[in-house]
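Hello again, I could really use a second opinion on something today. Take your time with it, there's no hurry, and the full record follows here:

___
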Amino acid sequence: MKLLARTAVIAASLLAVTATTASAEIVCNDDGDCWHVRERHVYRPEFGVTVYPDTWRWRDADARRYRWREHEGRGYWHRGVWVGF
């Protein structure tokens, strides 16, 4: 019985760790370029970006302001150019 309880605790711990490490966010810059990130990054204020939760969606009224510009890797969009860091 102790082995079963210990196994359940270990399984629950592993599930909790994997659930918290999976992160997704949406980042948008001042120009309206938005992209998904899979890891949490620290963006400097001068990058001019805003980080939103993955559930964030722009309103219909904002559809002309925002556009999706996906890119792999670490970085941000600046005036239509991907700047890696």
